[in-house]
Structures are given as C-alpha cells and as structure tokens.
Amino acid sequence: MADESQKWVLMVTAQTPTNIAVIKYWGKRDENLILAINDSISVTLDPAHLCTTTTVAVSPAFNQDRMWLNGKEISLSGGRYQNCLWEIRACANDVEDEKKGIRITKKDWENLHVHVTSYNNFPTAAGLASSAAVYSLAKLMNVQEDNGRQGSGSACRSLYGGFVKWVMGKEENGSDSIAVPLVDEKHWDELVIIIAVVCSRQKETSSTSGMRETVETSALIEHRAKEVVPKRIIQMEEAIQKRDFATFTHLTCADSNQFHAVCLDTSPPIFYMNDTSHRIIGCVEKWNRSEGTPQVAYTFDAGPNAVLIARNRTSAALLLQRLLFHFPPNSETDLNSYVIGDKSLMEDIG
Ligand code: DP6
Prior knowledge:
The chain is α+β, with helices and mostly antiparallel strands. The protein is 31% helix and 23% strand. The protein contains 8 helices and 17 strands. The protein has helices at 80-90, 132-140, 207-217, 221-242, 245-264, 275-291, 313-326, 344-349, and strands at 10-17, 19-23, 28-30, 35-36, 40-44, 51-59, 66-69, 72-74, 95-97, 102-104, 113-120, 163-166, 179-183, 192-197, 296-299, 306-310, 337-340. Helix 4 runs antiparallel to helix 5. It is globular, with a radius of gyration of 21 Å. 45% of the residues are buried. It binds ligand DP6. Its main location: other.
C-alpha cells in the first residue's frame, strides 16, 4: 500500500432504486452465479420516493467490517452481509486514487476492512429487497462484473426504470441471464403504488436461504417454475403493453399468492405474511369484486408489507381512505404507516 500512515479513507456513495416483482423470482439453479429457475417481471419505483443510499468506506485504520442500517449498527457475524462481503472481496481488483496517492492491490483487499452505512428514504421495510450496499462495495473494490446481480438476483431489475424482465437464460455460465427493459416509466404512468408497512422488523428467513429451502423441499416449486410462470410471463408482458389493468391485477395477485403458497409448501414452512397482510388481501379482494372491475393489485415479497398498485389516482385515494378506515393509525393492528410516492394523494382524501 502506498500510504503507510494508516490515515487515508476511500469512500464511494451510490443510490439504488427499489423494484417490486409482479411475477416473482423464487429459486436458483446456480447459487454462485445467481441464476434463477424462472423469468420474473418487476416495476422499478421512482428513486425520488423510494431508494437506498449507501456509503462504503475503506481504511487501513479500520480493524473490523462494520455496517449501519438507518443509523443503527447491525451485527455482521455469520450473516448474509458477511458472506456477501467476502464474495465481493474475492472479485476485487486494483484500485488507484492518484489525488490521494492511494493504491490498493487485489491482494490488499484481503486484509482491509470496510464500513458500510445505508439509509432508506422510507421506513426500513422487511422484504423490500435492496442491494445498494452490494452495488457500492462492488464499485469501491473495482469489481468488473456488470450483470447487476452481485449479491442479490432481483437487484438486476433495478438497472432500468419502468417494467423490467429478468430473463433466466439457458447458458450455464449465465451469459444470457440478463435484465431487459419492457416499457419505460412513462408507458403506464397513471398507476399509483402504495406500500403499507405492516412491520418494519427485519425478515426472519432471508430470501436466499428461503428460496434454497423451497427448491430443496417443495413439491410445488417445479410445477410453478416450469408450467405456471412461463405462461404468466407471456400474459403479463401483453397486459403491460396494452395497459390492461384487469389482467395485470389478476396475474399480479395470483403470482404473489402462489409464491407464498410455495413458501408454505417448504419444509419447514416459511411464513412471510402475517394476519394483517391477510386482512389487507381480504379488503382488496372484496373491494375489487364489489366494483366489478379491479381497482387495486396487491403483491407481497419476502415479508408482511403490502405493495398495492392502484389503477389510477382516484382508486389510490379511495384505497387510502379504506385502509385508514380498516387500519386506523395507532390502532391495535400493527400496520404502522403508508409509504406513498405522491404526498398530495393525502390531500385528495382530505
Ligand atoms: C420475493 O433477490 O433478495 O423479492 O438473489 O438470494 O439475494 P437473492 O434473493 P432476492 O430475492 C427476491 C425475492 C422476492 C421476489 C422478487 O423480487 O422477484
């Protein structure tokens, strides 16, 4: 290392948007290369409203890896972040900062520690996967891979705005497993996404270990990956192209429910949703049925929070009104807040 004084710090900050899958990725055929067992489709959320900002720093003065999420230090021992860190370290390359006179070789990375701080501009929401940390670390360590999948498969879909498909690909080396933009954010801009934060606790079963257990033990997952999802992907692409909200809602809700069904079919079973999540599903289903045409689609990732996609602003305002009625703030339910992109929606409902 060029600098022996131990006083230098090198930092990288990156912002990554969040995406929400409407046809879920669940299960890998190759864990190292992060290759999925089915295609998936997601919508990327506007980073102005929902994104994660991460700063990573490296210095010879650091004597251990440390990480803070929204200002709170989290334990790294034996967890997925630690594994992830080592995976990225293994791919690190030489880094040079001429201005600061710093040169870090590939070998140096093995003995250097990093500090990672990550902030979400929304309440830490269990199950809303974000891989800003991985992205910033890869940048800091000059990792050459650019398929966007470092550390987390679903992250590659955040490479683009609008609706994005992650094609599972066929090649063993993963060369054809890529994110493909389907339509940009302007194509279907009347949709309004509301996230009902049911619980901001960290999820108990990480997606990585959950999907591994599903692939190993569920009898249903093969049927889902081979028979159900391929058909849904075709139908979903068509619904998105045509802005066909009824078909979009049917597919989105059905796919979320099937994803949670395969979690339940896993041994031991994985429960990501809780009673409040189930009540939200009940409310939305009832409302959609009573209206005749669907107004809102729901989807849940690896956690209890509901992602609700309303067909337009009017439906979104009505939805918020209903949610506030059924789940009043500070009531006994554990639905603690709503994250909405457009704060003026609250004004619409008075
Ligand atoms: C339920 O991308 O977090 O959100 O690749 O193991 O890091 P790893 O999993 P991750 O899984 C996300 C699963 C999901 C569905 C989805 O986003 O498609």
